[in-house]
Design a protein that fits this description.
The protein has about 1100 residues and is mostly beta strands. About 15% of the residues lie in helices and about 50% in strands.
Amino acid sequence: MNLSYSISVIKLSAILYFVVCLQYGYAAYTQTITYTAKSEPLTVVLQALKQQISYEVLGTNDILVNKEPVSIVAKNMALSTFLDQILLPRDISYRIADRTIILERKRTAKRTPTPPRPTDTKTQQTIHGRVLRVDGTPLSGASVAINGKIVSVADADGRFILTDVLPGQSFSVTMVGYLSVTLAVQENKLSYTIQLKEEIAHVEEVVVTGYQVIKRDSYTGTAITKSGEELRQVNPQNLLQAVQVFDPSFKLLDNNLAGSNPNALPNINVRGASSLPSGSGEILRRDNVTGTTNMPAFILDGYEVNVQKVLDLDMTRIETVTLLKDAAATAIYGSRAANGVMVITTKAPKEGKLRVSYTHETNVNMPDLSEYNLLNATEKLEYERLAGLFDGTLQRQPQESLDELYYQKRANVLGGVDTYWLSQPVRTAIGQRHGLFLEGGSPVFRYGVDMRYQTRPGVMKGSDRNQYSGGLNFSYNLKNKIRFQNELAITVVKGNESPYGSFSQYARMNPYYRMADDNGNIIQRVDTWRRVAASGQGTNEYVLNPLYNATLNSFETLGYTEVMNNLSGDFDLGGGLRLRGQVSLMKRMHTGDDFRSPMANQFFNYTTERTNEKGSYTSYSNNELYWDANIRLNWLKRIGKNDFNVVAGTNIRTENLDERSFTAIGFPNDRFTSIGFARGYAENASPSSNYIASRLFGAFMSTNYSFDNRYLLDATVRADGSSKFGSNNRVAPFWSIGAGWNIHNESWFNNPVINQLRLRATTGLTGSVQFSPYMSRTTYTYEQGNWYSSGIGAIVNNYGNENLSWQKTQNTDIGFDMGLFNDRIMLSPRFYYRKTNDLLSDISLPTSTGFVSYKENLGDIENKGVEINTNLIAVKNTDWTVSFMANLVHNTNKIVRISNALNGYNDRVDDAQQTDDLRGVPLLRFKEGQSVDAIYAAPSLGIDPENGREVFVKRDGSLSYVWDPRDIDVVGVATPKIEGSFGGTFRYKQFMAVVFFQARLGGEMYNQTLVDRVENADPRYNVDRRVLEEKWRAPGDVTFFKSIQDQGQTEVSSRFVMPDNLLTLQSVFLSYELQHSLVKKMSLSNLRIGLTANDLLRFSSVEVERGINYPFARSISFSLQASL
């Protein structure tokens, strides 16, 4: 399917909806009630209401029991008025969502003390009032009650009249979705203006699974739900980092290479790793692990998206985010659920008159170079002298030439040359985001239009990621029986990588080098070092200025254009049955261009014969097309004391990816950047293409049941069929079951301290198919270099396995929820156990087959741990709110079983560990009984004070100065013992402050900085300051590092394994909402200003250089929200 056809479908959908909208116009529709009751129980009235209007009513029994009988005569009465009259006088508030009436205990925002009851001698009077929203607009339908009895209702202009009231008598004003207000009648005051504040919906009261909305107090699964507002208070730029603060088991793995690069994608684990790492290269090291096999599934408004889409989301449009973690919560997603599921819902347009909302944000990102501790010019030259670089005997060079070289460098130092190279490629980057949202409509037709523009410049000069997007959202509601909604969104993202290259190049540059000549021109070659081998053969090593590349016309751009259309329908079949369907289409077109000037440093050493190979241009495109459809039947019913929430349905998803790329070389000069100027392809190279198609079909059924809101049961079954599976394993069954007990709802439980106590346990089977679609099939690659008389040749590219199946994860979760002092203190500890079977591994094959290995399901990993979530509301009243929270997680990981091929991989790692490039790097190994995060190195006792040499401990316990790879063993585990977050929220009237910290304790880290920048540091380039201050120099020196003159390779050693304890001030949020009287003078309805700071402080037990290729950053965001 091509793009033009897809856009035609979208256009047709939009036209059809506009025709429907024009047909029905904006005629308002209001649900009315006709009903008469005389002293009937409230539960009977609500049951009759459900049958008359086909709404569902959710509420716990403790809210409804012991309420006075209802007497009412209603004829074509508005639903909101009817509910006001039967619920509000009985201290029950409610809200309506998705044809469901949710009952809650009534909360009061402000209560003015009621004066003593007046005597009969005071004169009765008639008063007038007007009810307004905070933004000053009238609020129609608000109920006015005296002594709990509704005596008036605000009209369309928000006005009401009370007659025969006495001074001192109190009256209350209530409205669904708003906090009630109670006032006292004042003598001789005949006019009142009441402003009602909108009640913030408690998103924690329900769990949105993507297929169901379930009351949390009847749910046994493990799910963390946060509102978009809460997440924006933590980090307004990165949704995933904000989620990590609220749930530490959702872990963004540190990427010390990419740092804060706005174009980099994160790796994520949820409750530990359930798959073996993958990455670039046959031998894995921790800095080249690039696989995303542990990535959770992301569901956006009902359809699956990738992590890039989540990172590019405008956080101001997010309504809620729910993280589903255990089997009961995720089994409904089957083969996509082994690593958890994140369900994201965006804001829907609200009805009413046209409302215009504008948000602005200015983001300031500052490079964090605090972890770099390099030598200055004087120190660096002294280190070179002590290391023997100017010693003719050690360097096998004439002493006179080395002396001359030394004094040339010393002249630069004495001349004041002390270049701070780290500051050259970085900047303080200022980005901005603008968002405009228009919404409104009637109960029949609602509309929303949003436009967004965002710039995200990186702290490396020239790097950025900019986004332009817009969307249309229409919904049509036919008598609350049939509802259609269509959302069209177009997003354009353009990014640039920095022309300044890798940040690591600048960290190596000597401070006594000049950047430019006397005329201000950037110098390309700044130095030449002569190296002479023991054989007497010498070579020149040229030091090139990395800034020179930035003066050229090289560029690297990337981006995509995305068109997304989401059409859904909702049909009320009566009797609690609802039929829902959704079809989503997403077309994403990626492009990338990478031009390297022929004058770039990488071509400096090309010989004359290779002149016509200088310069390169790589072009890349990837077209993605996703269809995602589901249809489901929901049944929400209460029968006596039995509550049922059941969904059954099916979904289908297709993915098509078409990748194309080529690299051309040989450009005549720096200005000719067009691909047309290339001489041709590189030798033995040609354009490449790759087409990937996969399909997933699933059927599911999930039941949430509660008896008297005391005994709870959740059960889910699902079957998936995927084209990724082998032909002998096309269908994958998944299941889960959970049970719970609301002890606090038992009649015998009456504890003045504990108001909520829920026990729950779940278990189930989920899966993962995060691997290439064609691993189960034998595939071929055409060899364009091999042409025969019969045509082009082909070779087998992948040896297929028809038995290949999904990875299976058995999840077990046990926990309880406890609320103390009317939920002022909340405690939720959980224990979980996850065992993943049938890990995807390589099976060794005889070399005679032409293959080293093929894919098979062999290997098991287990994770087990404890999570604890706590909340404390210390102060809560009209003016003040003070609350605290702490979330902790402990996880252990173990490889239970591996294949023979992984044993072969470990043998290859032992061989690779002896090569010069990898001798000092702890390579990944996989051994049964050990953690995936285990650190492997040779045990060491440290440096011998007598000679400055390292002492190793061999397997037999003897000591040796000789490093032997056969001695390598587990010397540490990178997984922390405990990690978590804690913080607090402080509110005083219109001012709010939120502070969050993150911490980890008990883990270990291999300090690669000490190896690369101290032990194995080349003295010809700049290094960490510890190389000068802490290296061994003379017998008797007790030091951590070997001799300063020892230029030999330092091998991987336990000496560099260090405790990894970390505390960061992750987020500080400050906001102030201006008073309405001041805002009204600006012709606005509301105005809020805010400030968010991220990554302000960092305290670590390990000193390492962070951000090797791209530095990390601290950020400050200034926000403004205004509405007309």
